[in-house]
Structures are given as C-alpha cells and as structure tokens.
Amino acid sequence: MNELLGVMRRLRGPGGCPWDQEQTHESLRPYLLEEAAEAADAVTAGDAAELAGELGDVLLQVAFHSVIAEEAGTFSYAEVERGIVDKLVRRHPHVFGETQVAGSDEVVANWQAIKAAEQGGRVRPPSAKVPSGLGALAREAAAQNLAGARPDARAAREALEQALAGADGDAHAVADVLGAAVAWARALGVDAELALRDRTSRTLAELDRAAGGDGRA
Q1: What CDD domains does UniProt report for this protein, alphabetically (predicted)?
Q2: Domain count, the chain
C-alpha cells in the first residue's frame, strides 16, 4: 500500500499528472461508484484475474482519496486503516473478546448494538441509513427492509399483480410496480439489484454475439 500511496503522491505532486492534480473528493465520486460496480461484475463473471484487477482499481480510489485528504490535512491513509481495523475488532467481540454467539443472526444483532453505542445512542433517521449512491432497486430494497420484515412471497406476488393491474401508465405507476417487484424479490430472498444487473449482462452479451463481437472493449 505504501508503494501505491507513493505513486499517487508523485502523480499529485510537482511535475506530476495534470489530470490527477485536478481531482477532488467530489470529482472522484463517479469513479468510486464505477470501480465498485466493475468489481461486483467481476465477481459475477467468476474471473479471478479480472477480480484482482478490479479490486486494484477500488484500492486506487482509497489511495486517491487518502492522498487528497493528506494534502488538505484532514486525515491520512494510516487513519483510514486504523479506523477500519479498530472497528472490526470492536464489533467482533465473539472473536476478539469473550462474547458467545449462536449464529450469524446474533452476530448482526451485536454489530448493530455496538454501532448504536458508538454513536452515543443517537437514533439515525432512516434516510441516513440508505446511501444515495446505491442503485435505485437496491435503495428501494434497503428502504423496505427498514420499513418492516420480509413479506410473504404469495402476498408480495399478489401485491405486484395488483400494482400491474392498476397501473395508469405514468411514472408514478411504473415506480409502484417496480417497488412491488422489489418486495416480491425480497420475499423470495432475491437481490433485485443483482438479479437485474445479471439479466442486463446477459442481454448485452447476446447483443455482442449478434453483432459478431466478443463483448470486449
């Protein structure tokens, strides 16, 4: 990591790269999202070499933001690393402490309790728990999770059919149908965001084959 940080400092420093020198936390936001999405695609593709490369691009974003913050005197990479290490140790008392757990459900419950204690017991509004950078389907699923338990699959399917039957053909109706589809996916234990991403990837692969290409840029 020190070598990567050194490269970034060189790129940002005198005589470095004009493009890298111009970047800010704000300007890098789309790249952070893009690189994370491409890493997720590599996981889906099952290509280990591709995944290694994409994770490198994600790590580059961590280094880039850390060097920008270092220049501004706000934080350093060492603080980023120390923060996540301390958090992992603190939130896994069943591994690094004496706490006993019966399964992953208790792990999650403990994590949330420790997180709340770290925040001084302050209750965060629901909107603060759903990142705006998530895809629309993922945000809807997260909002629904906050709103209540996973719905019954049959009831969710019926709600989806009712939403379709009552759709007026405007944007609000489409949103209602999509929301109902996400609820149905949740009831089935399916991640709607990933399911649709996989379907889109298959569609694009078919278009590539039809065009005589191999799907590589």
Answers
A1: NTP-PPase_MazG_Nterm
A2: 1
